[in-house]
Structure formats: structure tokens, C-alpha cells
Amino acid sequence: MFRFHKTLDVITLFHKPSTPASLRVLTLLKQVSAHASETATEDQATDHTHQNKLQRTEFELNVTEDPPTSDQMRSILEYVGARQASQVVTGARDEADAIKLLAENANRFKPPVTVDWNNGRAVIGDNESEIMKMIAQLPKETSSV
């Protein structure tokens, strides 16, 4: 019998290694991703009750040091609200301004920004609880034979 697996949701981190907040988010996402993809050990092989309750959500982590493209920026601001433009691009008043300023100077982009493209969510900065909430809301994969 064939088994079709759901494509993993993609979480993108717009990252800047020299920024402590960005490093914290990268570490968090790597830990959560690794934890989600762990398999049962031999000791756990007979009883999966605890793991079934946790319902770990796997996702594909995409880390980029490049700023978002104009289309990506439009999506990000759609997810967080155009009023948040200044939180993503220094000096931006709205979406159009953010895209214009970013095109003029990519250094105006303020990482980290974590984006769930598949489900239309984004978190600006290193708010761990919001990032964890976003990941917890990813659809859970159910296995069917």
C-alpha cells in the first residue's frame, strides 16, 4: 500500500548572526525542530502514550540572512498588520513605505522575523511565547495507512 505524507510546513527565519535576538530565535527554532523529529528510543518502543499526547509538529526550517523580497515583505506585513511596518523596516510608515525603503537600503530590515508561509503567520523579534504559539498552531500530521 502507498502512503502519502503531508508536505512539511515551512518556517522561515530572516536571520542576522550578529544580532543576539536573532541568535536566540535560531537556537529556539533548531531545538523545537529537532525535538519534533525525534523518534522513540528502544525504552519507549512499547509505550507511546506520552509521545501521542505531545503530538509533535514537524516543520521545515529555512534560515536566510537575506532580507525579504518585496513580495515576501507584502506577505509579512499582511500577516502582522501594516501598522507594524516600522517594527520590520526602520523608518517605514506603512507597507508601501516599507517596500520602498527596503529596496533603497536592505540594512533597514530589522531581523529576526519568523514566518509561517503556509498558514499566514509571522512573529517580529524574539518573542519566544509567540513563536512557540505559532509552531503549536501548525497542523498536526496524522498517520493513516
Q: What are the main properties of this structure?
A:
4-stranded mixed sheet, 6 helices, globular, alpha+beta, 145 residues
Topology (elements, then pairings):
Layout: E1 9-14, H1 20-36, H2 49-54, E2 59-64, H3 70-80, H4 85-88, H5 95-104, E3 113-116, E4 121-124, H6 128-136
Parallel strand pairs: 1-2
Antiparallel strand pairs: 1-3, 3-4
Helix pairs in contact: 3-5
Structure description:
- The protein is built from six helices and four strands.
- It has 145 residues and is an alpha+beta fold.
- A four-stranded mixed sheet has the order 2-1-3-4.
- A hairpin with a 4-residue loop joins strand 3 and strand 4.
- Helix 3 runs antiparallel to helix 5.
- 26% of the residues are buried.
Largest sheet: 4 strands, mixed
Mean pLDDT: 85
- Helix count from the secondary structure assignment: 6
Strand content: 5-15%
What is the rounded Rg?
18 Å
List SSEs in N-to-C order.
EHHEHHHEEH
Arrangement of strands in the largest sheet: 2-1-3-4
Helix content bin: 25-40%
What structural class do the secondary elements suggest? Answer: alpha+beta
Large-scale geometry = globular
The low-confidence runs, each spanning 5 or more residues with pLDDT under 50, are: 39-44, 48-55
What's the total count of β strands?
4
How many angstroms does the end-to-end distance come to? 8 Å
